[in-house]
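thought: fold this chain, then report.
action: predict
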Amino acid sequence: MSVENNKRVVREFCEQFKTSNADGLIDAMTDDATWWVNGKQHLFPSSGAKTKEEAGRMFRNMLSAYTDGLNMQIVSIIGEGDIVAAETRSHAITKTGKVYENEYALLFTVRDGKIAKVREYTDLLHVLEVFG
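observation:
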């Protein structure tokens, strides 16, 4: 696929968060996809590498905490070959009334029109602040 098509795949993937479409996120990933989150796993349980199945559970759990989805706004996006880097900002209101706003650097690997690998860098202290 072209770089522009890969960037389109990433944009469409990020749109799924707005509608809390966990199935859409999962379906957009290859069967052998992995999702890695920065941080030390003994301090932040969401850190480390996850399989597609584990990422799916993470999506469902996370999206169920919001009143109206997670607005994942792409601030900038660049690509080369099968790699797409996106700087994003999120905004959501949790069911407990807290505001969740975070920033991310996401590095995607796209294969055959699907997300094959994600490396997520974000502020885990804010995650802990909002979700405990």
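thought: worth noting. Residues 3-18 form the longest helix (16 residues).
final: tokens above.
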